[in-house]
Specification:
Layout (H helix, E strand, L loop, with lengths): L2 E8 L8 H18 L4 E8 L3 E6 L5 H12 L4 E8 L15 H16 L4 E4 L5 H19 L3 H13 L2 H8 L3 H10 L2 H19 L3
Parallel strand pairs: 4-5
Antiparallel strand pairs: 1-3, 1-4, 2-3
Helix pairs in contact: 4-8, 5-6, 5-7, 6-7
């Protein structure tokens, strides 16, 4: 069976002077994801090395969606994410630090690639027999990452709530603005195109890994 692992680090975290405040916010966001989106993960997200985190994802096909959910709930913190898809050679445990295997190694390799390139914030590493799929996914993320990097705070709010509620009027009520303004923010963020590409990647992963 194949699993997904995310290994990530916060962008420009060392520029934040108040380290206690940063760690407090970082910890709250990690705890929020683990509590409210536990159905995505087999090993909760865990902070290590001060500004990095790692976790295990239950269903490989849901990785693109979960990655977006983390980004939407982490803002204004942004992060670079290395995604590894592969086997786990130990027993599955809740503590990601007590797990080993191909998925973790590939995830770490993916993050290292991002750190060297510095031109993207997402990279996937897959087993060698899936190199063509790996290339497709990473090419798609050249657009998805650009979209994410250029979002405004108002667009982040609209996207996060719209993914949850799927209703313009409900989002508008939550943000205390008109639903026309919500629609305007989503269009400006190219949300429809982003969502279509995200679902295309989910479909491709499903075709390859649904039975694995």
């Amino acid at each position: 069976m194949l699993y997904g692992v995310i290994t990530a680090d916060i962008v420009r975290s060392k520029e934040i002077k108040d380290r206690d405040y940063f760690f407090e916010i970082f910890s709250k966001k990690i705890n929020y994801i683990n509590k409210n989106f536990s159905y995505y993960i087999f090993a909760p997200l865990k902070i290590y090395r001060g500004d990095e985190f790692q976790g295990g994802i239950k269903k490989v096909i849901r990785i693109p969606e979960f990655l977006s959910v983390i980004r939407e709930n982490f803002y204004p913190l942004q992060f670079r994410a290395g995604i590894g898809i592969g086997s786990i050679s130990t027993n599955i445990k809740k503590d990601i630090g007590k797990i080993d295997g191909e998925a973790l190694r590939l995830s770490s390799q993916a993050l290292n690639i991002i750190k060297k390139e510095r031109e993207r914030i997402t990279y996937y590493k897959l087993p060698s027999e899936y190199r063509s799929l790996e290339e497709i996914i990473n090419n798609f993320y050249t657009f998805l990452d650009l979209n994410v990097i250029n979002r405004t705070s108002k667009q982040w709010d609209a996207i996060r709530l719209y993914r949850d509620k799927k209703n313009l009027k409900k989002v508008a009520k939550k943000l205390n603005i008109t639903f026309q303004n919500v629609s305007k923010r989503l269009r400006a963020a190219h949300w429809s195109q982003y969502y279509q590409l995200e679902n295309f990647l989910i479909k491709k992963l499903d075709e390859c890994f649904s039975s694995k």
